[in-house]
C-alpha cells in the first residue's frame, strides 16, 4: 500500500485528488493540507511514502518544504505537481531535490502513474531535464574512485545515506563524505541530479 | 495566463474519473462520463500550450543565462523539438527591459522555427559582444523568402498573440538594436539580433 500525503493550496484539487487516489486499490491518502508548514508536521505524524505537493503553498514555499523533508533520516519520496510546464518549475523541482514532476495540464491518471513510479524509486522528469543537467555538470565520471562509483549507483537506486552505510558496511559519516565528494566531482547539487546523471551515463 | 482554469479542470477530471469508475455496470452512462473526461483532457492540452508562455519567468530573480536556459527547456518539453544551446558561463546579466525583450524575441523565434522550418532541432546562441548582447536562432529547415514574409506581415499586424518577424523587428528598433535575417527556400534560416545590454 502506498501511503500518500497531499499538499496543494487549491482545496478543490485536494478534494478531487483525494477521491481519485482513495479509489485505487494500492494507494491510501494518509493526510492532506493547503499549508506548507503543516506538511512537515503531517509527515512526522503519518510517515507517508510519497508526498505530492504543489510548489505554491500557503505560509512557506514548496521548495523550502522539500528541502526540509530531504534532511530527515527516512525522507518520503516527493512528487511536485504543478500547473506550469516551464523551465522555472522544472528547475525549482530539480534544485530542491524532488523525485519527480507531474503536471496539472495532464490527466490526473498521469499523476497516479507518477506516484507509483516515484514510490518504486524511479525519477520522473521530462526528457529535457536530463539534457539540462548533462549540459551543466562539469566533472568527468572517469575521476571517480571505485568506492564513489559504488555509492553513486546506490544513490541512483534511491537509497538514503544510512541505507547505503548499512549496505556497504560503512559509517554514516563515511558515506556522507563519499557523497559530498561524488556530488562535487559530478558537478551536481543533490541526489536527484546525481541519479539523473547516472541514468544518462553510468560510470565507464 | 492565470492558472485558475487548470486547477478547476484538473479537479473536475479527478472527480469525473471517480464517477466513471463507479458507473461500472452501466455501459451507456460510463461512456458519457468517459466522453466528458476526454473533452476536458483536450481542453487541458490546449491550455498547456499557452500557460507557460504567459507566466512571468522571474525576470527580476534570474540572470539572463538562466532565463534563456529555462526558455530552451520549456520549448523542448512543449514541442519535442531539440534546442542546441550555446551559452557562455560568463554571460552576466543585463537591464530588465533588455532581458524581457530577449525573452520575447527568443520565444517568438523558437516558435516560428518550430511552426515553419520542419527541422528536428534549432540552434540558439547568446553572447556578449562588448556592451551589447547578440542572439542567434538558426535551423537547417525549409527556409523562406524574408522580404515577402516581412511585407505580408506589415499588412496583417499583431494577431493572436504572435507578433511574428515584424514584431521582433519593431521591438529591436525600439531598444536601438539591430536585426538581420538570413533565409531562402531550402537553405534554412538564421535570425541574428543585437541589443544594448544596458
Tell me what the structure shows.
The complex is a heterodimer of chains A (204) and B (198). With 204 residues, chain A is of the alpha/beta class. Chain A has 2 domains: 2-125, 3-Layer(aba) Sandwich (Rossmann fold), CATH 3.40.50.2300; 132-200, Winged helix-like DNA-binding domain superfamily/Winged helix DNA-binding domain (Arc Repressor Mutant, subunit A). Chain A contains 10 helices and 5 strands, in the order E-H-E-H-E-H-E-H-E-H-H-H-H-H-H. In chain A, strands 2-1-3-4-5 form a 5-stranded parallel beta sheet, with helices on both faces. In chain A, helix 3 links the parallel strand 3 (50-53) and strand 4 (77-82). In chain A, helix 7 packs across helix 10 (191-200). Chain A is globular, with a radius of gyration of 17 Å. Chain B is an alpha+beta fold and 198 residues long. Chain B has 2 domains: 4-53; 61-196, Histidine kinase-like ATPase, C-terminal domain (Heat Shock Protein 90, 2-Layer Sandwich). Chain B is built from 6 helices and 5 strands. A 5-stranded mixed beta sheet of chain B has the order 1-2-3-5-4, with helices on one face. In chain B, a hairpin with a 2-residue loop joins strand 2 and strand 3 (132-139). Chain B is elongated, with a radius of gyration of 21 Å. Chain A binds chain B through residues 10, 12-13, 15-17, 19-20, 23, 83-88, 90-91, 103-109, 126-129, 131-132, 135, and chain B through 3, 6-8, 10-15, 17-18, 21, 37, 41, 44-45, 47-48, 51-52, 55, 57-58, 62, 66, 69-74, 76-78, 85.
Amino acid at each position: 500500500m502506498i501511503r500518500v500525503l497531499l499538499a496543494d493550496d487549491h482545496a478543490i484539487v485536494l478534494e478531487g485528488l483525494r477521491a481519485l487516489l482513495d479509489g485505487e486499490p494500492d494507494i491510501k491518502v494518509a493526510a492532506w493540507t493547503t499549508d506548507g508548514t503543516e506538511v512537515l508536521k503531517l509527515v512526522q505524524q503519518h510517515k507517508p511514502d510519497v508526498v505530492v505537493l504543489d510548489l505554491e503553498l500557503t505560509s512557506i514555499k514548496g521548495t523550502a518544504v522539500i528541502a526540509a523533508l530531504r534532511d530527515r533520516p527516512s525522507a518520503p519520496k516527493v512528487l511536485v505537481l504543478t500547473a506550469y510546464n516551464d523551465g522555472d518549475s522544472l528547475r525549482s523541482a530539480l534544485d530542491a531535490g524532488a523525485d519527480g514532476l507531474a503536471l496539472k495540464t495532464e490527466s490526473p491518471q498521469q499523476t497516479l502513474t507518477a506516484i507509483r513510479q516515484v514510490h518504486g524509486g524511479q525519477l520522473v522528469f521530462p526528457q529535457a531535464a536530463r539534457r539540462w543537467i548533462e549540459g551543466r555538470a562539469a566533472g568527468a565520471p572517469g575521476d571517480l574512485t571505485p568506492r564513489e562509483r559504488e555509492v553513486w549507483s546506490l544513490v541512483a537506486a534511491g537509497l538514503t545515506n544510512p541505507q547505503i552505510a548499512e549496505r556497504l558496511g560503512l559509517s554514516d559519516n563515511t558515506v556522507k563524505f563519499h557523497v559530498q565528494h561524488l556530488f562535487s566531482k559530478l558537478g551536481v547539487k543533490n541526489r536527484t541530479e546525481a541519479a539523473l546523471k547516472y541514468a544518462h551515463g553510468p560510470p565507464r | 495566463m492565470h492558472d485558475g482554469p487548470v486547477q478547476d479542470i484538473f479537479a473536475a477530471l479527478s472527480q469525473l474519473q471517480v464517477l466513471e469508475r463507479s458507473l461500472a455496470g452501466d455501459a451507456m452512462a460510463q461512456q458519457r462520463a468517459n466522453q466528458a473526461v476526454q473533452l476536458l483532457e483536450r481542453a487541458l492540452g490546449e491550455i498547456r500550450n499557452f500557460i507557460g508562455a504567459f507566466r512571468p519567468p522571474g525576470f527580476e530573480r534570474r540572470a539572463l543565462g538562466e532565463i534563456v536556459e529555462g526558455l530552451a527547456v520549456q520549448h523542448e518539453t512543449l514541442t519535442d523539438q531539440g534546442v542546441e544551446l550555446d551559452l557562455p558561463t560568463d554571460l552576466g546579466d543585463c537591464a530588465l527591459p533588455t532581458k524581457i525583450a530577449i525573452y520575447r524575441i527568443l520565444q517568438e523565434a523558437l516558435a516560428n522555427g518550430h511552426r515553419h522550418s520542419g527541422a528536428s532541432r534549432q540552434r540558439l546562441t547568446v553572447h556578449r559582444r562588448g556592451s551589447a548582447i547578440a542572439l542567434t536562432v538558426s535551423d537547417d529547415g525549409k527556409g523562406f523568402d524574408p522580404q515577402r514574409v516581412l511585407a505580408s506581415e506589415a499588412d496583417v499586424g499583431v494577431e493572436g498573440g504572435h507578433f511574428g518577424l515584424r514584431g521582433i523587428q519593431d521591438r529591436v528598433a525600439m531598444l536601438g538594436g539591430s536585426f538581420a535575417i538570413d533565409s531562402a527556400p531550402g537553405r534554412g534560416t538564421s535570425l541574428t539580433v543585437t541589443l544594448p545590454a544596458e
